[in-house]
Description:
Order of helices and strands of chain A: EHEEEHEHEHHEHEEHEEHHEEHHEHHHH
Number of strands of chain A: 14
Radius of gyration of chain A: 19 Å
Number of helices of chain A: 15
Helix content of chain A: 40-55%
Number of domains of chain A: 2
Oligomer: homodimer
CATH class of the largest domain in chain A: Alpha Beta
Largest sheet of chain A: 7 strands, parallel
Amino acid sequence: MKILITGGGGFVGARLARQLLLKGQLTGQSIDELHIADLFPPPADLMADARVRVHTGPLLAQTELFASGFDGVFHLASAVSGECELDFDLGLRSNLDSTRLLLDGLRKAGNAPRLVFASSVAVFGPDVSNPLPDLVTDNTLPSPQTSYGTHKLMCEHLIADYTRKGFVDGRSARLMTVTVRPGKPNGAASSFFSGIIREPLAGVESICPVDLNVTHPVASPSNAVHGLITVFEASRQAMGGRLALNLPGLNVRVGDMLQALEDVAGPQVRQLVKFERDERIAGIVANWARGASSERALALGLRPDVSFTSIIEQYIQDCQQPSYPADALKGLKR
Amino acid sequence: MKILITGGGGFVGARLARQLLLKGQLTGQSIDELHIADLFPPPADLMADARVRVHTGPLLAQTELFASGFDGVFHLASAVSGECELDFDLGLRSNLDSTRLLLDGLRKAGNAPRLVFASSVAVFGPDVSNPLPDLVTDNTLPSPQTSYGTHKLMCEHLIADYTRKGFVDGRSARLMTVTVRPGKPNGAASSFFSGIIREPLAGVESICPVDLNVTHPVASPSNAVHGLITVFEASRQAMGGRLALNLPGLNVRVGDMLQALEDVAGPQVRQLVKFERDERIAGIVANWARGASSERALALGLRPDVSFTSIIEQYIQDCQQPSYPADALKGLKR
Lengths: 334, 334
């Protein structure tokens, strides 16, 4: 099989690539070539695998690549929420135009490859006539409140139509907020969902901009990757005639995230989290799903992470890898 | 005010243009220029009005026009359902690319003009995990089953995002099936909703391809035009934070449509309708909304047509106009 991961240089994409290389096959067929298209080259371990082919640069420059005859595609590349809000045209180019170029390339190749699109829980948002329920379900009316969520929802429908026409065999999996992410805090409003765990574990103070009672659906990186692969391998019949589904989320309260941190790492680590309300971030988060249910994903055998403790333990285990900073667990080791 | 109607040469668009010229103002401001952009020139009566400016050709060639500083826009131009199914790329160009070019032109002008987008009840469709309810409401989850419906839904969300960013003041009004349309039967699966009334009134036999018990939400041309104008004039506040709404539909059974025809025109006219089931058309119609409710439109003071009899009477009155064929009511006059 010849597989493509767009955004395969990013955190979730590289993890997906590693998992696919380890697994060695998809739907029972061996993976011979794993193509990674991203703005930046993927981590060294991926570059070193003989099956990996790297395509660096904007997706909009990959017309020929997309039409080169893939058997399967994971489409993860995307400008993120904060970028899209700052640069409206960049968002449309990176998310909508790139997806269409990809779809038209796959269509041109003519073999109707299977395609998993990484959509997002950001398709949901409140509106005056239809406030968000406590749990967003597969049947909740999407009402995105960001350009990012808008693009994801538009692409879900575009992919459904290319699939209906037989040009691709597409499905859209809505990722929950993935945590704990490695690296530095970034400009994303959701950054603190990783920061309040990652920074204290490294012995660094972290600011929580919302109060303890905020709840949100989250997933560990490995759970998210497992979800993408499971949706890829699901039969059309198992998808049940509808092409977009919520991946499982663990619905967790910020206070319970911090209790889990204390349980795993002790009170001195937890005490590195300070509360300083940021009205801008709190306002954005107030428009996000407070929880999610995932009936259709459950029917495919997917499950949320069992606890936030297990999510923290996964991060601690990840930190053993050479690609993580040497002081990533400095707080834990004191 | 400088107003633009895209698709202003078509049946609903030209009727909207006439109504605006008659009304002379929108939201209390006089209409000084009414620009009509369409593939074909509008009817002669519109060409003759000194306020009308005509722009003939594809919307994709109207970059400068769109940025020329409109105060209000009615965006009706669209490739229809049948065209989009036959030519996938034409559909994307005509519906998605043209809408984006229009939005970017309006954004470039910088005055955030009010915009009404003519969306469609075709955004709704059944799927296995979420069958269509008896009445589709403003809160029904859209699941389009045609490229046309897909494009309409994508544009609704794109317009909502341009509005959220302050680039336009947009709203999307979902038109029900407009009947009775003049002219010849066309390739649209919905063509018979006009044909089974129009042809018998002209003394011509008409084939009904579905059975008497099929129900569907319909609106008269004047009701549809009134809906578009009312949505244009509604305040942002009255729109209630959500930008897409169902226009009112009269939920009517095919059998009751024919009874109304008999009531208005007599049994000999009704007998010109023959039933010959067409499995292709019946299959398409089975995926359509069987009825609609329109809570948000009702809150704006809009109402469905009072009866199908009144819809037929409106068509008979329309036939007095010089632009209608002389023998349009030949069946009635026998």
